[in-house]
Amino acid sequence: MIQKERTLSIIKPDAVSKGIIGAIISRFESSGLLIVSAKMLQLTTDQVLEFYNEHKNKFFFKDLMEFMISGPIFVQILEGNYAIRRNREIMGNTDPMKALAGTIRFDYGESCTKNVIHGSDSESSAKYEIAYFFDI
Ligand code: IDP
């Protein structure tokens, strides 16, 4: 049975400052993922700590923190069949050097930190992350 899902997507500060929000959104829409809610905001250090709490003791956390508070982000809820998995496929590997050709991170990512996009990685994280940013 086809499973209609919702997932959280964040266009990160590197992509917002490069002016490629539209190019990224086009990829979702042309893949059949609908944007059902969206907003721009700038994260605080407390919010990054909360949102990326599982990574707080990792070696890359300081860089991740600095990067994620460095400018506005574009947060959106994507909806579609198998949206969680399909969004992850469209995004590509965390490391743009390992991402498949044609994925967002392959095309626009600069490094593991500056990797353009976030997407929920499971049903439970999608639920938590959507509720974190939206009241729906
Ligand atoms: P994901 O964004 O592909 O789901 P996660 O492992 O959840 O990857 O990591 C969250 C974010 O932390 C990544 O998108 C990236 O910005 C950063 N990150 C993860 N691993 C590394 C690393 O090895 N070096 C630098 N940054 C990393």
TrEMBL record:
Keywords: ATP-binding, Cytoplasm, Kinase, Magnesium, Metal-binding, Nucleotide metabolism, Nucleotide-binding, Phosphoprotein, Transferase. Signal peptide: none annotated. It is an enzyme of class 2 (transferase). ATP binds at K12, F60, R88, T94, R105, N115. It holds the Pfam family NDK. It is found in: Cytoplasm. InterPro entries: NDK-like_dom, NDK-like_dom_sf, Nucleoside_diP_kinase, Nucleoside_diP_kinase_AS. The active site is at H118. PROSITE patterns: NDPK (PS00469), NDPK_LIKE (PS51374). Residues 4-136 form the Nucleoside diphosphate kinase-like domain. Its cofactor is Mg(2+). Its main location: cytoplasm. GO terms for biological process: CTP biosynthetic process; GTP biosynthetic process; UTP biosynthetic process. The keyword Nucleotide-binding applies. GO terms for cellular component: cytoplasm. Its EC number is 2.7.4.6. Belongs to the NDK family. Major role in the synthesis of nucleoside triphosphates other than ATP. The ATP gamma phosphate is transferred to the NDP beta phosphate via a ping-pong mechanism, using a phosphorylated active-site intermediate. Homotetramer. This is Nucleoside diphosphate kinase.
